Amino acid sequence: MISSRTVPLPAKDVLSTEVSGAAVLMSMDSGKFIELNETGRDIWKLTDGSTSVSQIVDTLQEQYDVAHDHCLAEVVALYRKLHEEGLVEISS
Questions:
Q1: Cβ neighbours around 58 below 10 Å, total
Q2: How far apart are CA 78 and CA 3, in angstroms?
Q3: pLDDT tens-place string over residues 1-26
Q4: CA separation (Å) from 76 to 19, 20, 60?
Q5: How remote is the C-alpha of 57 from its chain's centroid?
Q6: Which of 28, 29, 77, 79 gets the most CB atoms within 10 Å of its CB?
Q7: What is the mean pLDDT of residues 33-53?
Q8: Is 55 helix (H, G, I), strand (E, B) or coil?
Q9: Burial 26-41 (b: 16+ CB within 10 A, else e)
């Protein structure tokens, strides 16, 4: 389960690049890839294995005018999808 205490880490086989303000992530093992919009790109940049979801939400709230609960829900949803695709590892 992904919560505010979760600390996401890019999977070892993931390559990422920025294209036109977005981020493209690809798993070298599975060949799966996903394109993230600018907000997703900003979340990905904070995905370092030492920053918790709560800290990521706090940082995003400084950058964007968004309610805490909405921001948390969106960040958790993104990490859930990235985890399902094998692009991030999750630890609590």
A1: 14
A2: 12
A3: 899 999 999 999 999 999 999 999 99
A4: 24, 24, 13
A5: 11
A6: 79
A7: 96
A8: helix
A9: bbeeeeeebebeebbb
